[in-house]
Design a protein that fits this description.
Blueprint lengths: L2 H23 L1 E3 L1 H8 L9 E5 L8 E4 L2 H8 L5 E3 L2 E3 L9 E12 L3 H9 L9 E4 L4 E12 L2 H20 L3 E2 L9 E2 L12 E4 L6 H7 L31 H14 L5 H14 L4 H15 L3 H10 L2 H4 L4 H8 L14 H26 L5 H8 L3 H28 L6 H6 L4 E6 L2 E7 L14 E4 L16 H20 L11 H6 L12 H4 L9
Parallel strand pairs: 13-14
Antiparallel strand pairs: 1-11, 2-3, 2-4, 4-10, 5-6, 6-8, 6-9, 7-8, 7-11, 12-13
Helix pairs in contact: 7-8, 8-9, 8-10, 9-10, 13-15, 14-15, 15-17
Length: about 550
Amino acid sequence: MGKSAQQYFSNKEDSQAKSAYLRAQYAEVKPLAFYDAVLGAADTDFPLCVAHTESAEGHRLANYENVLEMLVASGGRSDSFVYPAKYYNAYPKQKLMHELRCLYIDLDKVDAKSLRRLCQKGFYGQRPTYLVNSGNGVHLVYVLTQPLAAYHWAKDLLREMHSSLLRFFRKHRFAADLGTGLSHAYRIVGSLTKLGQTCRAYRVGKCVEVGQLAASLGICWQRPVSKSGKVSYNHKEKQPRKGSPARRGFYDYLVHTIEARTQEGHRYSSLFALACVGHKCHRAVEGILEDAVRLAAKLGLPKHEAEHAVAACNPEKAQTVRAATLEGWLGWSFDHKTKRNGRTRAEHLAEIAERRTAASRRRVTDYLERHPKATISEIARTLAMGRKTVAKYFHEWLEALRDKVVQQAKAMLGASPAAKPSDCTTDCTAVSIESVGPSPTVITSDYPSTATNPDSRPTISTAPSATIDTPVDTSREEGPGRRAFLAYFARMRHSLRHYLPLRASSAPRSAQEEEKGIKKADFWRPASPLEDAHPCSLQPD
């Protein structure tokens, strides 16, 4: 018999002796109960990660949704190793670790004599929860009382605790593998060892509290403090989540719509979405459960799935669920009501622009009604508007005022019963109103002619129809129509002169005009006769 064969049988006998001693000292734990305590219940987001080192398919990593499936696939193999933690994306890397429930200590080359010494010494004060006979060595498993979320600061402290435990057992002359860490795979309990024996687990002690285990190793389990004195990693108490509240009618809308629109594949998630909306609407849990059970019966789901959907919904997290997430769970989109009242986007924007234009025009008009002598620059400064915008609305308002004056003058002339066409040309002042271009021109006889105003404002152009020596029939100058028109014309003249803008000679020059070198003389215009005329000057001599 060769040396390797002798070593094989020697190791096999030693492993059988260790198993016999452990059975006599401790109670054996079934693999299913062992992994339920070490790994917890697996779910679709965090499946169990297993490495098959001699896989014939070439895929070393495998993921299993539950412990039973893992044990069935690895029961007859000697190359199966499990990672005792949960990882994001089911990839066993320390940076992606999500949750940790235990600390594994791997002791190599532990024979029956060394194992007896370890157990009799009470593990030198560091009694584990489970002891696993892995063949040539043993595994000490320290199960924590509460699963730990793998924050950065927690992983740093756990790595330090793991290294301290390895160094602790090396001091007592055990071959602890310092190369193992938190993300390390260990032989599956229930699978075969290198010697062809079954890997078994035994209950040794109780679950340990992470703070007490750290204190026994001389480590303070506490969040680190930054240099500024503030505790890092969110030391404040967790505040309740705040989300946008849902309308109470939205819950009733879902209750009536889920039954009609939900397709197969979204039935359970639809009930879960209903529970989230119910919590957002501050509905009682009993009422949500009753609606979920009723809908489950109509959708063809068992009652326990409806109860599980309602129980799995966290009321705090439900407050922050968005509409897009709810639509993904439901499998259909909500009936969104447009806020444009059926208008297209272009029509809606055009209406908004029209409203803003009307509001700006109304601001300028109201200011001119209160301050009739205000200039365009003054209005622009007071209302914080552009000069071009103010000028546009100012001229629109002035044009409307002219049209109103012209219409009223026409109405006054048409209502004069005593006036005749022949009288207006010989004995009294004849007034005719004509529309020339964009602005009306008032032509008055018996007065010297003046030049036409170049800025399209109402001007007076006179032509002599009668001389001073021409006799005037004074018996007709006091007719009721003529007196009424003269009085109205005087009022119109005084009203209109307030709305005429000031001359450019009295207005300050702007910075743009200074830069362009524009002279004030370019802004001069002749004065309107209405500005300096007197009501008495309208009376014939």
